[in-house]
Amino acid sequence: MVRDKWFISADYKTASTSILYDNLASLRARIGITQEELANVIGVSRQTYYAIETGTRKMTWVIYLTLVFFFNSVEETSEMLKELRIFPIDLVVRFNEQLEDVEPLDV
């Protein structure tokens, strides 16, 4: 069973992926990367990425996290993610709270 700290609701996922859908093309354009190049980075075909960007294919949570990781890693788009509230800050906060509860390993 997933502890409450790590549970991500379907509504949260839907809202997050929806915002990213609406901004994928502008995020990609901001760094001048083609659909084919971005598809290669995230590990899907160009056709699959095109379908995601145009909304004809549902974005999985794994693809969402992969795209967020990529765009957050690029200087030109990382601030835009935060401004659009695409970056899953709730998850970062939960993860960091969990780290405070972990005891260091005895080496």
CATH topology, by name, is: 434 Repressor (Amino-terminal Domain)
Estimated structural class: mainly alpha
Using the alpha-carbon principal axes, give the shape: globular
Which consecutive residue ranges, at least 5 long each, have pLDDT under 50? 101-107
Mean pLDDT, nearest integer?
85
The first-level CATH class name: Mainly Alpha
InterPro entries: Cro/C1-type_HTH, Lambda_DNA-bd_dom_sf
Keywords: DNA-binding
Protein name: Helix-turn-helix domain-containing protein
Pfam families: HTH_3
Keyphrases for this structure?
Cro/C1-type_HTH, 68% helix, Lambda_DNA-bd_dom_sf, disordered C terminus, 0% strand, 107 residues, mainly alpha, 434 Repressor (Amino-terminal Domain), DNA-binding
What features would you describe in this structure?
It is a single chain. With 107 residues, this protein is an all-alpha fold. The protein has one domain (10-101): 434 Repressor (Amino-terminal Domain) (Orthogonal Bundle). 68% of the residues lie in helices and 0% in strands. It is built from 6 helices and no strands. Keywords: DNA-binding. InterPro entries: Cro/C1-type_HTH (IPR001387), Lambda_DNA-bd_dom_sf (IPR010982). Residues 24-58 form the HTH cro/C1-type domain. Pfam families: HTH_3.
Question: Would you summarize the structure shown here?
Answer:
With 107 residues, the protein is mainly alpha-helical. The protein has one domain: 434 Repressor (Amino-terminal Domain) (Orthogonal Bundle). It has helices spanning 10-31, 35-42, 46-53, 61-73, 75-83, 89-101.
Topology at a glance:
Layout: H1 10-31, H2 35-42, H3 46-53, H4 61-73, H5 75-83, H6 89-101
